[in-house]
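Ticket 4471: requesting a sanity check on a complex prediction with 2-acetamido-2-deoxy-beta-D-glucopyranose. Repro inputs:
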Amino acid sequence: MGPFAWFLLAFLFPLTLVKDVNLLCHGDLTDGFIPVPLNESNYHKLWPYNLPLSDCYSFTDGVRKLWVYSTDKSHSHSSTTKPRTEISISLIDDGYTYASGMWQFERQAYVPNGTSGVCIMQIFCSPNADGGATTLMLRVYDGALKYYQQQTVEDNIYDQWFKVNVIHDTAAKVVKVFINSALKLTVNNRGGSIHSFKFGVYTQNNSSCYMESCWKGIKVLKFV
Ligand SMILES: *[C@@H]1O[C@H](CO)[C@@H](O)[C@H](O)[C@H]1NC(C)=O
Ligand SMILES: *[C@@H]1O[C@H](CO)[C@@H](O)[C@H](O)[C@H]1NC(C)=O
Ligand SMILES: *[C@@H]1O[C@H](CO)[C@@H](O)[C@H](O)[C@H]1NC(C)=O
Ligand SMILES: *[C@@H]1O[C@H](CO)[C@@H](O)[C@H](O)[C@H]1NC(C)=O
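Returned structure tokens:
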């Protein structure tokens, strides 16, 4: 290699490093956000009305496990929705969470092989948006994590922990989903003015008989 080539290498190599460092810094999704204090009373639970909570939920060693069967009852006598075991993170007493600002929901999720046709996370909204009470649903169909029943957010999610960050910018009306810190979905929100984060298992069409998701490291953060 001639001296000029060495010169080029010496010049280009640090540039490559700088680029990687920028990428790494950019990977810290919570920069500018502060965690909101959460205690158990913020974890508002919904589960089939005829069962004890311990038949569809456990909280052991920091892991919240939620499960439901497609044959279970809805979460209340009066509801006609399909069975669910879900947690809604409620920061204020009316059960809703936020109406303005930029919010982030971070946690690790685990879905066992066999769980399908189920929503594992949603951003609830009120009043109803076009086509429903959610502005985001992440569903599992045959091992793929999907935006509703539409595009795939991440393939092959079964049987492993993965990190999910959801950022909802209510001013820009945009929702972003990151899996293991990589941006995987950017969508407009679907209306509604008051929102809250929910997670667990909520039966959808073509579900498996048994549905389960596990969660840990849950944080709600607000952009300041
Ligand atoms: C838990 O959070 C609720 C709602 O934010 C609050 O009213 C309550 O005082 C908190 N309890 C404790 C023990 O911190
Ligand atoms: C899930 O289980 C089925 C049936 O046991 C198996 O055929 C399939 O390969 C498994 N999928 C994954 C991703 O492990
Ligand atoms: C389920 O399927 C029925 C009929 O095919 C449809 O009307 C309904 O909107 C579907 N529900 C969901 C949650 O996709
Ligand atoms: C459910 O699955 C069947 C066959 O597997 C398919 O024809 C149907 O469109 C699916 N329905 C929904 C709502 O996904």
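Notes from triage: Residues 205-206 surround 2-acetamido-2-deoxy-beta-D-glucopyranose (ligand 4) (CB under 6 Å). Leaving this open until the requester confirms.
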